[in-house]
Amino acid sequence: MADVYRRDFGAASTVIPYCVTTDSWTPDDATPAGHGLEPGRYLLIAGRHNPENNMDAIAELYAATDRDLPFVVLGTANYDSPTTANLTALSRRDERIRLLGHIGGRSEFFDLVHHAATYIHGHSVGGTNPSLIEAMGSGARICANDTPFCRETLAGVAPYFSLDQPSFAAAIGSILDDDPGHDAEVRAATRARASDRFNVVDVVTAYRDLLHAAAAARWRTTTISTRWAQST
Fold first, then answer.
1. Rounded to whole angstroms, what are the CA distances from 227 to 17, 69, 115, 203?
2. Rounded CA gap, 53 and 231, in Å?
3. Average pLDDT of the chain?
4. Is the C-alpha dihedral spanning 222, 225, 227, 231 positive or negative?
5. Residue 70 in this model has a pLDDT that exceeds 50
6. pTM as predicted
7. Is the N or C terminus of the chain more exposed, i.e. has fewer CB atoms within 10 Å?
8. In a 3-state reduction of DSSP, which class is residue 119?
């Protein structure tokens, strides 16, 4: 995002991402069962039902595969969303597509994301998107839309896909057909990256430092350097 502001507007900016904390959460495999799901035996996508999140397009890509696992969709929209309409119509044609709507409880949300065989992140805009960082913090096995934002956030701990059938099928196949031992290693690495790069202490400290700098500068435009200014 800093590159976008620099390139398109000639403006410097301070880079501070979203953060996640899962310190008070421990996985509970009873949560998926409460929704008729088996831990490790479903795919999941989550987010607002906005077109740029590609949730209906990705559900269509999954419907075109011969995989037999449920494809769970979390989230909703606060308007008459064509995405919701498309997902609803698809779920009526394909029993694998399950719409659970909005999940308000954070522990329940983390449980559902964590226990999925793969969490699919289809967002095409949004920088360090909060739902992606939350999935990382839960130790999810992630498969992500191939955007600069996702690559910067994940730094290689997930496969990427384009919004076409061969690319998507290959990306989810690399996860669904993976060895359990390697799957556990990737999940641990994903959660460790969230803890290192997107933890609450570092993010709050960066906001504090920026506010102090702005107060000291009074009327002048102020930016500060942070550890997230460059992709690492």
1. 10, 40, 31, 10
2. 23
3. 94
4. positive
5. yes
6. 0.93
7. C
8. strand
